[in-house]
Design a protein that fits this description.
The complex is a heterodimer.
Chain A: E1 3-14, E2 22-33, E3 37-42, H1 48-56, E4 63-68, E5 71-72, H2 78-81, E6 85-88, H3 102-113, H4 125-138, H5 155-167, E7 173-177, H6 185-202, E8 206-209, H7 213-218, E9 222-227, E10 230-236, H8 237-241, H9 245-256, H10 263-269
Parallel strand pairs in A: 3-8, 3-9, 6-7, 7-8
Antiparallel strand pairs in A: 1-2, 1-4, 4-5, 9-10
Helix pairs in contact in A: 3-5, 5-6
Chain B: H1 3-14, H2 21-47, H3 54-71, H4 75-98, H5 104-123, E1 127-129, H6 138-141, H7 148-168, H8 171-181, H9 183-188, H10 193-219, E2 221-223, H11 230-245, H12 252-276, H13 284-317
Antiparallel strand pairs in B: 1-2
Helix pairs in contact in B: 2-7, 2-10, 2-11, 2-12, 3-4, 3-5, 3-10, 4-5, 4-10, 7-12, 8-10, 11-12, 11-13
The chains are: A alpha/beta, B mainly alpha.
Chain lengths: 271, 318
């Protein structure tokens, strides 16, 4: 398996030199093999989202290198990195344009990724058929609503559509930042199931931040726990397979020297 | 007898002299030309979600370039160059706001202010009239029936409407619309918002300058104050049109360009009617400002009214 993502000793400090100085990520190194599906857990302010933003190029890292599929992206602007990345956020409204139709949203994701197309390319009949086919696979009945404005869809439908847009052309890396956290439990379950199948079918390298420790252990092939800008636990293989929620929390306690300080985790998973 | 004169006479014989058909026709002709301003604002204000005040200066710029070239016997070249000069003005505003960190509103005001001097430089004097020069409307004016100018103005606007709708459906057009619709989404996709904003502002101002260029040749006159208040007039036109056709939905683009065009025509008819009943045309800018202020503040006022009503009812039940 080749390496898809390599983070070499990256650091990022916000508000350096001020009273609010915060080392959000500190000397973090991480390597993802092609096809890895890594789940990421950690308390508030552990640096999970900062890690994603550093990869996506929302800001440039203070130190270290970001390498995707052999290409050094450390100083590439966000929009250029986005050619190779798919991103989903917690807020389902963030990933789609509400006043544009489902077809137009998909076209935006699709036409931009197909390199041979010109800026003046439009949706062909064949493209539309492809959109319809992929929408049908979501099982939400969206394939019959290509001309509906996305603003009319529910949060779950919009998040599923965002997932489809992010993977319509297979990205080198998919970043999921608690993408089901704002959805009601049954919708969240459905979107998570879609995520699982789409990632598996296309063998997408993927990182997923979650507050749900159970899904962190169930999904993917590797689990990382973060605290204070560092990776404190990296589980894979048999060790991960035998892990329970309670054992993981205990493991965190010994690794980080404190309780996992997150009410949402404690409330949602210790049934 | 030309058809137009016949209609004109018929109205008079019936004694309905409030507004003759001739005046009405003139208003519609102007409406089709001014519609391009509303179309430009549909791009910047509705699509990109930027209130671009460059518009005032760009309209005059188009008129100035067009007038100068018409005097030199090159009316068509004047129109074409006006289009590109408008795009250039839009580019300056875009550069200020995307690369140099100037707030969008201020960027427009800076360019508009600079254009005031630039426009005087282009014309060499505050106004130019060229009543005897050949313009791009000359051939149409000579057409039998007297509807030549009307048809030409309508055709130009129709072609631009179609081109604009086609453009907004392309990959670049979709990117431009997404930039105005959801910034978060754009930054997470491979769209460079600085680029799409620049394309949008160039296009918007090019179309506005085209409007100025056509108006100058239509009225055979250009003046350094032609564009004053044009943003508000254009928005008022667009909003009037949107009231008639609605906004958004499955055919949002078609509705948008139709709203801009019909709104501009209706606006010019209102102006003509106001003049016909002896309302000073100067007051139309006040009317336009009121239309825009009322339309944009409507949701806020509606929410306030609903809140007060709810509070009153809740208090009554206590």
């Amino acid at each position: 398996m080749s390496e898809m993502l390599e983070l070499r000793h990256i650091s990022k400090t916000f508000g350096a030199g001020t009273i609010n100085e915060k080392k959000a990520v500190e000397d973090l190194s991480l390597t993802l093999a092609s096809g890895d599906f890594v789940t990421i857990i950690g308390g508030n302010g552990a640096g999970k989202s900062t890690l994603f933003n550093a990869v996506a190029g929302v800001f440039y890292v203070d130190e270290g290198r970001v390498i995707l599929d052999g290409e050094d992206m450390t100083f590439l602007p966000e929009y250029k990195r986005s050619n190779h990345l798919g991103r989903l956020f917690q807020d389902p409204l963030k990933g789609t344009a509400p006043h544009m139709t489902i077809e137009e949203n998909l076209a935006l994701a699709y036409l931009r990724s197909v390199r041979t197309r010109s800026p003046f390319g439009t949706v062909s009949k064949k493209d539309r058929e492809y959109f319809r086919e992929r929408l049908a696979a979501l099982g939400l009945g969206l394939e019959d609503r290509l001309k509906s404005p996305v603003g009319l869809l529910s949060g779950g439908q919009r998040q599923a559509l965002t997932l489809l847009m992010a993977t319509l052309v297979t990205p080198k890396l998919l970043l999921l930042d608690e993408h089901t956290a704002a959805l009601d439990p049954s919708t969240a379950e459905k979107v998570l199931e879609l995520t699982r199948s789409i990632v598996a079918e296309n063998n997408i390298t993927c990182m997923m931040i979650t507050h749900n420790i159970r899904s962190a252990l169930e999904l993917g092939n590797r689990t990382i726990m973060m605290d204070a800008g560092r990776i404190v636990l990296d589980l894979a293989g048999e060790e991960r397979a035998g892990m329970t929620v309670d054992a993981l929390l205990e493991k965190f306690r010994t690794s980080a020297g404190k309780e996992l300080d997150n009410d949402r985790i404690l409330l949602s998973d210790r049934e | 007898m030309p058809l137009r004169a016949a209609l004109f006479r018929k109205i008079h014989t019936k004694g309905e002299t409030t507004m003759s058909l001739l005046v009405l026709q003139g208003a519609v002709e102007q409406g089709f030309i001014y519609a391009l301003v509303a179309l430009g604002l549909y791009i910047s204000f509705r699509t990109l979600d930027i209130a671009d005040l460059t518009t005032d200066g760009t309209f005059t710029l188009g008129a100035a370039v067009s007038a100068v070239f018409t005097v030199q016997g090159q009316p068509l070249l004047g129109v074409v160059l006006a289009f590109f000069c408008g795009a250039l003005a839009g580019f300056v505003t875009a550069l200020l706001q995307t690369k140099l960190g100037v707030q969008p509103i201020l960027a427009g005001i800076i360019t508009m202010t600079a254009l005031y001097s630039v426009n005087l430089m282009v014309m060499g004097k505050p106004n130019i009239n060229f009543f005897k020069e050949k313009t791009i409307f000359t051939a149409a004016e000579a057409m039998p029936g007297g509807f030549g100018s009307l048809l030409q103005a309508a055709a130009i606007t129709a072609v631009l409407c179609v081109l604009l709708v086609l453009f907004l459906r392309t990959q670049l057009g979709l990117s431009l619309r997404a930039t105005g619709d959801n910034r978060d989404m754009v930054s997470a996709s491979s769209i460079n918002p600085a680029f799409t904003t620049t394309v949008g502002l160039c296009l918007s101002n090019a179309v506005v300058a085209l409007s100025g260029a056509l108006i100058a040749q239509y009225q055979k006159f250009a003046d350094n104050t032609l564009g004053t208040g044009m943003v508000v007039i254009g928005l008022a036109s667009l909003i009037i049109g949107e009231v008639l056709f609605g906004r958004g939905g499955p055919h949002a683009l078609a509705k948008g360009v139709l709203a801009a065009t019909v709104g501009a025509v209706v606006y010019r008819i209102i102006v003509a009617a106001a003049i016909a009943v002896n309302i000073d045309a100067k007051n139309m800018k006040l009317v336009s400002a009121l239309i825009v202020a009322a339309a944009i503040s409507y949701p806020a006022i509606r929410d306030k009214v609903l809140f007060y009503r709810k509070r009153r009812e809740a208090n009554r039940n206590v």
